[in-house]
Amino acid sequence: MSHPYSGAVTEPSVPDPRTVSLPLRTPDLESLRLLVLVADLGSLGRAAERLRISQPSASRRLSTLERGLGLVLVDRTRRGSRLTLAGQVVAAHARRVLDELDDLLAGAVRLRDRREAELRVAASLTIAEYLLPAWISELRARRPELYIGLQVTNSEHVPELVESGEADIGFIEGPRLSRVMSTRQVAEDRLVVVVDPAHPWARRREPLSAQELSRAPLVLRESGSGTRQTLDRALHLAGCERVRPLVELGSTAAVRGAVIAGTGPSVLSELAVRGDIAEGRLIGVEVEGVDLTRDLRAVWPTGRRLVGPAAELVAVARRAVAGERPARPAKVCAVRGGP
């Protein structure tokens, strides 16, 4: 190659192979255990016996470790095996690595035992009040040692609790998910229009139309609840506007009490008002042109396998209604947008 000033030609430099660093190979854990045992026992044979491998196999493993690190770690003599200075340094590091690994495994066992000993559930109000008690009772009968914690919130917030790890499994009643999650239908519910016995609708002979329902001021659950989402979506699919809330309340029990007191009509889960209708405290009003059925679903993070008590609770819930409908496979979905 010509020098830019003198015109001299120089040969490209060739690296000295004696000074080139070879890439280190990450040692396997069993080789590190072998090295630490040689340090502790002073004998390759006794170290091999402790690990339940043959001495030739231990010798090959140690040689592979030395080649991978580019160091002589053990002096082998007739009186035994003694670590070199480099071997003592590497063995000290190896001991710390193995201690950390033992801590990791012990911690994993504790986490697994804790997962098997407790179940944290997040559920929407309707499911928590009218279905979960029976499901939990059946699961506890099979696993009496299991601790079950329940957070009750509206359907909109259940996926957040599950995704953040605050709950192991969630149950929702709304048609819309705020994020992509794995879901599985566990039951089916139907919303019904209810009024107190003195309300004019209680004496109707013809079903309400979807338009009449959408234009009537109603006593409603708050926005974000599964009941409200289902109603809004059903009316939207029927070509109607969203309902006009007369009163918005934060629980099914509060809405039910307001309707019984004569505040106004409402749309509530059949699960919540079945007894009131049977005993005459509320009157169910037929509606045509709008589908008020909904799926009740279990939700958990996408990519996470459903195992342990969470999987058992979902199985209990599905068995409870197995005779009422065909089973559906798990799916991953996020129904976005809506009315």
Summarize the structure.
Helix content is 42%, strand content 22%. It is of the alpha/beta class and 339 residues long.
Summary tags:
339 residues, alpha/beta, 8-stranded mixed β-sheet, two-stranded antiparallel ribbon, 14 strands, rod-shaped
Describe the model.
- By secondary structure, the protein is an alpha/beta fold.
- The chain contains twelve helices and 14 strands.
- The strands form four sheets. Strands 3, 4, 5, 6, 10, 11, 13 and 14 form an eight-stranded mixed beta sheet that branches. A two-stranded antiparallel sheet has the order 1-2.
- A hairpin with a 2-residue loop joins strand 1 and strand 2.
- Helix 1 (29-41) crosses helix 2 and helix 6 (132-142) crosses helix 12.
- It is rod-shaped.
Alpha-carbon distance between the termini? 74 Å
* Major beta-sheet overview: 8 strands, mixed
Shape verdict: rod-shaped
What is the SS-derived class?
alpha/beta
Rounded to an integer in angstroms, the radius of gyration calculated over CA atoms is 34 Å
Overall mean confidence score, pLDDT: 84
Q: Would you spell out the secondary-structure blueprint of this structure?
A:
Elements: H1 29-41, H2 44-51, H3 55-69, E1 74-77, E2 80-83, H4 85-117, E3 118-123, H5 125-130, H6 132-142, E4 147-152, H7 158-163, E5 169-172, E6 181-195, E7 208-209, H8 210-215, E8 217-221, H9 226-237, E9 244-249, H10 252-260, E10 266-269, H11 270-279, E11 283-285, E12 287-288, E13 293-301, H12 308-320, E14 331-333
Parallel strand pairs: 3-4, 3-5, 7-12, 8-9
Antiparallel strand pairs: 1-2, 5-13, 6-10, 6-11, 6-13, 6-14
